[in-house]
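User: Hey, quick favor. My workstation is busy. Could you predict this chain's structure for me?
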Amino acid sequence: MPDNHTKKLSLRDMLAKASIPQVKISEKAKVTRSTVCLVVAGRTKSKRIEDIILAEVEKALTQGQKA
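Assistant: No problem, here it is.
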């Protein structure tokens, strides 16, 4: 579930803010980087990939706050 860090950001902005490369998401989702690129650009939808992005961004932002 998105929190205040990610509510109003696009998927692309979330990945950039958390410094997560799309290739990391593609490896985690076991899809091609092209597929992730299409989802991030909004040209196709994938709830599963969007959920992976949200989870990875939240994890990265939470870890960044602890440091």
